[in-house]
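Summary for the steering committee. One of the milestones for this cycle was to obtain a three-dimensional model of the protein with guanosine-5'-monophosphate bound, which we needed before selecting residues for the alanine scan. The sequence and ligand used are listed below.
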Amino acid sequence: MKQTEKVIIISAPSGAGKTTIVKYILQKFALFEFSVSVTTRKPRIGEVNGTDYYFVNKEEFEQLIIENKLIEKEEVYEGLYYGTLKSEIERIWNAKKLVIFEVDVMGGLNLKRYFKEKALSIFIMPPSIDILKQRLLDRKSETDETLKSRLKKAEYELQFAKEFDSIIINDNLSLAIKDIEKVINQFVK
Ligand code: 5GP
């Protein structure tokens, strides 16, 4: 295996803190580059096309599937599709960097199956469902309905934590970051 052909998969229920952790890793390890996913969800305020996601409509997403351009895809929430582009891996590996994915739990398991020993899959575990709920409320981007569906999905996803290479409990962010640095350093050395 070429040293550079590696990927790190970060998965967690929504609100477990994975975006913060991914941002930290990207800042700390210059070696990593974020794989920008494609989604049919509308951009949130401040999100940039091509940086946070490639924002597409349903027809464009279906076209990507037909052309076999996605490694994995999920209907993460009802009617909202997300997928990992093959072209992102080529782009990042060609630049001699390592890929970091931030995907939902099912997507994480699928990517691990695809990349096998080239991948380190990490599950970010929220300390409890109550804390997860509070974090989602603090984010103020959820309606009653999306909050409910995110919590329901989180409970389902927690069952799959043990299928990941590593589980990091995000009770205290700085401790979680220390733990994650340890597993990443071991994987990349
Ligand atoms: P959000 O809409 O909050 O940005 O993301 C919703 C969920 O979709 C998050 O759990 C995020 O990690 C996940 N997600 C983002 N991109 C992908 C992808 O390419 N594939 C899959 N399976 N999930 C993704």
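Key point for the committee: The chain has a mean pLDDT of 93.
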